[in-house]
Amino acid sequence: MPTAAIPPLVDVSAETPRGPVITAGPAEERAFLDALRAGVIGADAVLDGPDGPRPLRYFDWIASGRFHRAVEDELNTRVLPFMATAHTETSATGRAMTRWYEAAFRRIAGYVNAGPDDVVLPVGSGSTGAVNRLIHVMGLRLPSVLEDRYGLSRHIPAAERPVVFRSQMEHHSNDITWRETIADTVYVRFDARGRISAEDLDARLAEFRDRPLKIGTFSAASNVTGIRNDCHALARVLHRHGALAFFDYAASGPYVEIDLHPRRADGAPDAEAALDAVFLSVHKFLGGPRAPGLLIAHRRLFSNRVPAEPGGGTVLYVSPTEHEYLADTSHRETGGTPPIVGSIQAGLAFDLKHAIGPARIRRIEADYLARALAAWTAHPRLRVLGDLEAERLGVVSLIVEGVHHNLVVALLNDRFGIQVRGGCMCAGPYGHELLHIDEGVSRAIRQQLEQGHGAVKPGWVRVCFSPVTGEDEFQTLLEAVEWVAREGPAWADRYALDDATGEWRRVR
């Protein structure tokens, strides 16, 4: 397909969201995807390993996206030569950076269908910062030093405490963050397909009907099994009980549509299904590394009188004796110098996602996923975690019988150049559910960990697909996993296990 047939994939100066690239047939589609894959920085990288050089084959997309030339070229040619601080309108460079910085957030707001009362904030380096920022501005956490010294939380009547509903599927960022608040926390059960149960959520909300503040905060999809939840159905249940609906799109954000304000079939707004806040880790997007986390939330949630980070850029006026903060939430909550280039990059990463298009992404992922599951579920030494019939992202977590998960990772790396991740993926409660770990076993594992034996921590190996995954590397992955399942136990004596860390290193 001629290059001229493909419009630019990203545009730093665009004010509105873009749509997907449309191709005229199979040949153009293949050419577009080949060009997209070739644009990944490191697509032709080679790793030096104990068995010689191996092509780098990347399957750890849920952990981190990769840099892409479409984004980097746009930054290098149009943005970085004019680098300056934003929110300065007098100088040419200040005007340019401000324009690109603010345009990025307007496009992101458009991509997620945010409303005029929704705020898009760059926060930290991922969803962890976004969740913690929302907790802070809602006044739900007491400083631990003051709590330990004065016991402040005991003055909050039990009947007036907020209650937070979440699932065992949550990443630690959307679980322990809420445990460290003044709220009571409640787990919602799964349905028969391993999704968060709307029916159980309804029952749990009814139990706490008299609480003044109720919050549901759930993963849009698991970062372990990839199982997707129906965010809008859960939001409807929450709103019928007067609860807030928050969703963590860290794992699924790079791949799926995000719609804060959906419409019914007749085109009317579906207010019950709206999302009150979402959390995003843009570094997981293709083209997104370096980008900050994003909190996108309704203005009414920002009830704090003092910004989360008071300082430069948050104030309207400061005298020797008085100060007044800005009324605009987006400026008041970005104290200090904001992540200017990272935020512009976030907008470009969203551009790239939507140039590919969620529908195309889903089609590519579904094909790889179906073939991988067919191969691995049929293998007697492989166990795939999670319900196999549930709708899921292009993510598979598996256990190889008789081979420690980190040895699997080491073998895939050393023998094939395949990059995957082993462990619990910061989803300890979900690991207990998936691996059927009861309280007694859990306590025994914790005791071993406290004694420095990190190798006993349970885990699995996670494989992730992307629209830039190539057929050749996919076939290599299938062959490699089958090889590890067959030969892995015999290779264990060529590696040494570090009992403290659980890592395996080649010794012969």
From TrEMBL:
Protein name, per record: Aminotransferase class V-fold PLP-dependent enzyme
Molecular function, one GO term: transaminase activity
Pfam name, any one: Aminotran_5
Domain of life, source organism: Bacteria
Domain Aminotransferase class V, chain residue ranges per copy: 58-432
UniProt key word Transferase: yes
InterPro entries linked: Aminotrans_V_dom, PyrdxlP-dep_Trfase, PyrdxlP-dep_Trfase_major, PyrdxlP-dep_Trfase_small
Keywords linked to the UniProt accession: Aminotransferase, Transferase
Species this chain originates from: Eiseniibacteriota bacterium
